[in-house]
Amino acid sequence: MKLTDEQKKMLDGVYGRGFQKAMSMLVKYGNAFGAEHFIRLDSGHIFATDPLEFVSHILEDVDEIRSVSTIHAAYPAETKWYRTMGIPAERGEHESKIHEKRVELLIKAGFLPVFTCAPYLTGNVLRKDAIFSWPGSSGIIIGNSLFGGRGNRDASPAALCSAITGFTPDMLLYKPANRRAEILVQLEGLDLDSFNEADFGALGYYIGSIAGTKNVAVIGPFSKGMAFENYKYFLSPMPVSGAVSLCHIVGITPEAPTLESLITQRKEIEKVKVGKTEVRNAYEKLHTAETNQVDAVLFGCPHCTISEIKKIVQLLAGTRVKEGVRLWVSTCQAIYDLSMKMGYKDIIERSGGRMFTDICIMNIPFHDLAPDVKTTATNSARAAHYHARGGVAGGLGVEVFYGSAEECIKAAVTGKWGG
Amino acid sequence: MVLIGRVINEGKAEGEAVVSQLPFSFLGDFEVSTGKIMTKGHDCEGQSIKGKIFIFPTGKGSTAGPNVAFIGKQLGTIPAGMILIEAEPVIAMVGIMNDIPMVHRLDKNPLQEIRTGDYVTLDAYTGKVLVTRR
Questions:
Q1: B2-132 maps to which CATH number?
Q2: Is B109 exposed, middle or buried (0-12, 13-18, 19+ CB in 10 A)?
């Protein structure tokens, strides 16, 4: 790779050991994929779960990182909420202490402690062609497909190195030529105007399963005025049923005004039709519960927007959550504070629900909540996938009810799905 | 037999080959305490990749994969070297973060040329892979 003087200084250790380590890892990373030079990073985001030993090593001598970079959501046991959630104190205390140590180091270096999988809710926003390096696959696909940014499927340590140095190797999805569509999905017989967020999630879940790692282009009757949240639930399951990082929604994705702009001339592209049967097929995979007793209702994967919280409040109006059922709503601190100011948090709590900040509800440790929580209901296909499997790392799973916010709130109030 | 590939992380390693035809994730497929592949139905289910030269098509799965391998490195359960058809960013960072000699994009398909049990010498400075049939 060709390095500028500034990048050479980093590599030679002029700025200390942390910059040197980060730059040397990025040079290897770039060389592995044939990058010829670095580009400036516009937006960074990192996990707070990198090993403490590695984090302290790579932040050595780093007084101030050279990018605007936020920190991801944490595991429930690592946050102050572990008691409220019913996670054993011993484990919660241990894990939250390690988390605090890592976070202290990260804040000192300039990372922003927003603790969300949705950095776009906290001021870490993208624009067309913005270069971002974020771990967390929902942020990556949303950043690429909806905001028009350019981001790779970077692992957390890669994002950390890019955030520290402010540079990232020019490769893979940063290069327009690698952003062309590789599979074309044509939606047929679907009335998207009547779709709720769970329908969109099921549709996205199916598309991810057939696309694998390919860049997707989808053509369908998406209305110009469709809510952001519907796109969020449509895109976020694609990297869990598959490994999609970019899904061009033709007419919506900033770089995809037309299909012609996405396809390499004279190259045959795989074409697939998707309709009602495929959406039903995805629902069957996501909705695994065979009983109808709901133990927990979970919102916030990816983290809830203020509109979603308002909707939950409206659906709850005047009702109470059934005794013994957990209604948990997860978001970031900024949206939580806004919910407090609007009185939404009060209404949710008076109804018997709870609001949480900072946690990833996809990774709830069900073994810690057993035997009380054997089933969950959610409107997120991404969460449904992982709840059935016991989290990203795998573990004790639960039976899942999958449906819209309306169905989920009804289940929270009655304790029964569809009842 | 010799294969030549592109270096992801420099270093030298040698050992017995474990060959899988499936994309791999250190988060989910890898039992960090033993180095065994525990995924049900995996073509290497029950086999250990600890200290072996692990050969597989590409990576997959969670962007936290490199962090699991980091723990594996401390426990001594990670492979001695890795050879892939084509890495994706997450699996590449497994090798770079944890200093595992690693190559991809070889001149011949390593999944066809190398069999589990073969002895492999990997020079991940030059990208040269020497295979001795066993």
A1: 3.50.30.10
A2: exposed
